[in-house]
Amino acid sequence: MPASERVSARVTAIAESATLAVDARAKALVRAGRPVIGFASGEPDFPTPEHIVEAAAAATHDPRYHRYSPTGGLPELKAAIAAKTRRDSGLDVDEGQVLVTNGGKQAIYEAFSTLVNPGDEVLVPAPYWPTYPAAIALAGGTPVAVPGDEQDGLRVTIDRLEAARTAKTTMLVFCSPNNPTGTVYTRAEIEAIGRWAVANDLWVLTDEIYEHLVYGTTIFHSLPVVVPEARERCVVVNGVAKAFAMTGWRVGWTLAPADVTAAMTKLQSHLTSNVGNVAQVAALAALSGGTKEIRRMRAAFDRRRRTMVRMLGEIDGLRCAEPDGAFYVYVSAKDVLGRQIGGRRPGTTAELAAVLLEAAEVAVVPGEAFGGPGYLRLSYALGDDDLAEGITRIGKLLAGS
Ligand code: PMP
Fold first, then answer.
1. Is residue 175 in contact with ligand 1, taking CB distance under 6 Å?
2. In the chain, where are the structural domains located?
3. pTM for the whole structure
């Protein structure tokens, strides 16, 4: 029986995570002894800070954590998430509005599964992180890509959103700082988008996972703080993965109205039950430990960001603006498509990414993965020396030397 008949239509319809796929291919080549430099991965290269690891190590010996715990999260972690949210974004939430999830990914899946009905349209500013459309489709909804403005950091504006809105639109995805573009929306832009969502009776899933990773004078703003009227129709997604170098621990959360939180918790009770207790204790240590470690890592990302933008700017044919947040540079490669590169003539950025991997042993994610062809996403969450070597290799390959 062919796989298409063995596998449900629902799962057949979604693509595998392209970012994880490129990353897995690069890591497999490294294991095979190839000196591949990975710009594909969306994770910090730092180990998790020691005080967090120690808290987790101690928790493994405590029988309290060997048992099932409340589906929605350890009460002390929920309290810490509420306190951290008040401290960092200024949003006032109580513990009944918090659900601890297996990473931001599960938070997103549960939010769409809880709020989207079959046939609902969800606006997804493009380029987008590919899990959004997949999770919307799995919930029976229709993801509607709203292209950002290429002249303005690929941002979406009210005009663009309004052009995509129909009578079936029920929800908007908002991600700032953005993956893959690194764009951070200003307070005024967020206010306009939040008000527009309220005026049109839309839910907003606002993804704040990169809140701490903003550079220079850029300030992060939380949509439900800027637009308090939106609070009753917002699901905030966040987690410890990016800010604390904890991608492998799998702890995220949602902040949502209490009834929606209860519904998502019900879903999670059948899906995974509680998040691993040891990981929750680690997240508790991260959130209660101050922001010193975050500032240290952010300083390193900032340095690498500037190096990467400078080096890419010296490569003929590549164009990128300096991103204000997250740890990605989204580079336009439109001007190099069709050129002779590494013995081939890539006509798309998907083909170009394949040539870069083969001929320069550099892994990048093509814009096609994010609904934004013509671009390459390069993460700068890798060591300074690898970063410089990888960009040098790209430059040499494109220059034909
Ligand atoms: N949102 C965005 C925009 C992301 O880039 C990621 C990770 N790539 C996540 C959410 C989820 O992170 P995690 O599941 O590791 O917590």
1. yes
2. 3-47+293-399, 67-288
3. 0.96
Chunked into runs of 10 residues, the chain (401 residues) has average pLDDT values of: 80 81 83 92 91 98 97 98 97 97 98 97 97 96 96 94 98 98 98 98 98 97 98 98 96 98 98 98 96 93 97 95 96 95 92 92 95 96 95 95 55
Closest Cα to residue 397, out of 60, 37, 134, 17?
37
The reply to whether domains 3-47+293-399 and 67-288 share a CATH topology is no
pLDDT in tens, 33-92: 999 999 998 889 999 999 999 999 999 999 999 999 999 999 999 999 999 999 999 999
Is 17's C-beta closer than 6 angstroms to any atom of ligand 1? no
Asked whether 287 and 76 are in contact (CB, 8 A), the reply is: no
Pick the CATH number of 67-288 from 3.40.640.10, 3.40.50.2300, 3.40.50.970, 1.20.120.1770: 3.40.640.10
Determine if ligand 1 sits within 6 Å of the CB of residue 120: no
Cβ–Cβ < 8 Å for 384, 46: no
Measured from the CB, is residue 370 less than 6 Å from ligand 1? Answer: no
- Asked: is 3-47+293-399 a CATH 2.70.40.10 domain? The reply is no
The DSSP string of 180-200 is TT-----HHHHHHHHHHHHHT
Distance 114 CA to ligand 1 centre (A): 19
CA distance 274 to 264: 12
Span from the CA of 117 to the centroid of ligand 1 (angstroms): 24
